[in-house]
Amino acid sequence: MMYKRMTILSVVFMLMFSTLYLRLFVIVQNEEYVSAGKKQGTYTINAGHTNGNIYDRNMNSLVNREYEYYAVINPTPEAAEEILPFIRDKDEYYGSLVYGKPFLCSVTSGKFKSEDITAFKVPVRYGKNSIAHHITGYTANGEGVCGIEYAYNDFLRSAESVNSVTYTVNGYGTALDGIKKDVYNGGEMKSGVVLTIDRYIQAICELAGRNIKKGAITVMDIYSGDILAMASFPDYDLENLDKAVLDEDSPLINRCLYSYGVGSIFKLVTAQAAFEQGLNEDFSYCCTGSVEVDGQIFKCHDLGGHGEQNMTEAMANSCNTYFIELSKHIDNQFFIDTAKRMGFGMSIPLASGMTASGGNLQTLEDLELPAEKANMSFGQGKLLAAPLQVCAFTCAIANEGNYCVPRLVKGITDDKITVSGGEPEKITRVMDRETAFRLQDLMIAAVDKNPDSNARPSNNHAAGKTSTTQTARFDEDGTEICHGWITGFFPLSSPKYAVTVLCEDGGYGNDCAAPVFKEIIERMTNINY
Hints:
Elements: H1 2-29, H2 31-39, E1 41-51, E2 53-55, E3 66-73, H3 77-83, H4 90-97, E4 103-107, E5 117-124, H5 133-136, E6 139-140, E7 143-144, H6 147-151, H7 153-158, E8 160-169, E9 182-184, E10 192-195, H8 199-208, E11 215-221, E12 227-233, H9 241-246, E13 260-261, H10 267-276, E14 285-287, E15 290-293, E16 296-299, E17 307-309, H11 311-317, H12 320-327, H13 332-341, E18 348-351, E19 354-356, H14 364-367, H15 370-377, E20 384-385, H16 387-398, E21 402-404, E22 409-413, E23 427-429, H17 433-446, E24 463-474, E25 480-490, E26 497-503, H18 509-512, H19 514-526
């Protein structure tokens, strides 16, 4: 009996095993099950990434400053209900929801109760309130196109922080219940390029220049050559670059690096050369409003003439004919060499793809023509320079004769603490201290001691020189279109900063550029710079 029962059980087990084997064989041979089996495993969703930062001198980021939220959702009924009020694009959300698989969506909040929702706070490369566009540049298709984004493209793109969520899924891509998801948060991006720019001074300049239709503002540290701000106008909208390309005002040009006629600012170089050739402030000349040079008539802006004046008075009055006369006593080669020492005619490389134009400086052959030398004496004719060049030579005057090569990049950082690989400061003496002090006095007379100057700040003291540069272009009323300039330094008690403002096609320097210069100094003084 026992044997018979064992035989029956054995037969039953064999039948059950055979049935199971046949069932497994059918499953294995079924293409749908084979395909589903191959898909089983893990499924990772990336939820935003961050590339290397671009920092100012104080490690304040100029990019990645604003944030948006992304959520990865495993679409259970409870999770789908909780996240719905915070969805930015509901059409896209519903389109993904129908598949029942985990997916990524843009949301307005980063806080959710459901375990099936994982939210991330992701930096926006360029937010609505971003600044310094002409310095940072922009990207397209994940690559830097211009500015620092282009110059340091490989480094910035190699530094990447990525957020992700990984699920264990079945053959149809649906998250398996009871198996914990893996969440990876890329964390704060610390690697980046460190600039000499001061974010707050840059913001002040962009605010002060809000009414400049076309132009540029540059601020430098006179002791190091560090560029603290470089604002170009008009700015452009990073979300609408096609419009910027077609804009007749060319907003994509960085006008701080572009060359223009300099005008009366160059009278400081003429004065410097005169000092170094033995002339002094007592050199006098009677301005009658115009003067003839080699058959060409040169007019002063005061057609009635300034009368008898010395160099200090001529600088304050910006008398063209005085400096034409002064230049006659300067050796031609020495005149050119003096301008070169002050950076005129020399380009200024800042980073790959970012170089201030060398402009144009008259040659020795040019100055053999008396009329061309007359033009150069007050910054007209063939003479061209970029606002950054003008700011750099202003630094040399304020820094007692030491010329600092402008610098934009301090280096790179991997930890937001240490900086390496930057260009060192380059400082050269270009005039003696006495000459620098005498030029400072001329600039003080032109602004701080000039009641007609619109550049005098109400809460500080500054020195400077304005320019109104002729362009030989005229408006519909026949009035000549001019560029307005001012360059100067402050505070007088202990000079620290040089400021240069250009208003392209803006008119008289004292009318368009000087008030901007004044506002910048007042705002910087208010925040104790």
